[in-house]
Amino acid sequence: xxxxxxxxxxxxxxxxxxxxxxxxxxxxxxxxxxxxxxxxxxxxxxxxxxxxxxxxxxxxxxxxxxxxxxxxxxxxxxxxxxxxxxxxxxxxxxxxxxxxxxxxxxxxxxxxxxxxxxxxxxxxxxxxxxxxxxxxxxxxxxxxxxxxxxxxxxxxxxxxxxxxxxxxxxxxxxxxxxxxxxxxxxxxxxxxxxxxxxxxxxxxxxxxxxxxxxxxxxxxxxxxxxxxxxxxxxxxxxxxxxxx
Length: 244
What we know:
This protein folds into two domains: 19-133, 2-Layer Sandwich (Phosphorylase Kinase, domain 1), CATH 3.30.200; 138-234, Transferase(Phosphotransferase), domain 1. A hairpin with a 2-residue loop joins strand 2 (58-63) and strand 3 (66-71). The longest helix is centred in the middle third of the chain and has 20 residues, at 150-169. The protein contains seven helices and eleven strands. The termini are far apart. It is of the alpha+beta class and 244 residues long. 32% of the residues lie in helices and 20% in strands.
C-alpha cells in the first residue's frame, strides 16, 4: 500500500536545489532525496497501485506524451504532470505539490477549489500525480457555450468581475485566468480549477500585477468583455457577497 503526502498548507520558503544535481537518469529515490532537502516530499506510487487506481477511468485530457487528466471510476480525478524542460523549477517544486498547496491556500481564503486527496510520484510512467475531488459545477465557458439569457449573462459578468477583484485582494495571481477555469458551483459561488500555476501571497496584488493577470483574458475573443477592467484595476468591490 502506498504512503501518500497530504497537503498541510503553504510551505515555508524552500532551500533552492541546484538543478544540475537532478539528472533525468537519476532514480526516484535520488530525486526524492534531493527534493526532501527542499521541503518537498512526494511518495512513490508503485505501477500496480497506479494501474489499480486508474482501472475503469475515462481520459478527459491527453497529448502526444500521454494521459494528462483522468476521471476515475469513483468520481474523483487524477491529474498527471511531466517535467517539460530539464532546467525547470518543477525539479525542486513539482507541479503536483503546487496544485495541492494552492488548493489549501484557496480554501483558507474561502475560495472554492478542488479538494486534494493525495499526491504521488509515479516513476514507472515518469509522472507526478495529484488525486482530488473535483469542484462540482459548470465552468463559465460551458455556460456561455450553452447559451444564457441577457439578464443571466449580465449577472454572471458582474459576479466574474467581483470574483477577480476578490482574488487579487486575497493575493491570488492566477496565470490561467479565463472562463474555462472558473466554475459556478451549485450554491452559486465562483471557484477555481486547474490551479497548479497560481501564485498566492499574503498581500493584495499591485496594480501592475492586476494588469498583467488580465492580459491573457484580454486576448480571448468572446470572453474579454466578461470583465470590467477598470473595476478590477481599481480593486474596489461593489458588493461583499460571495454568492450571485
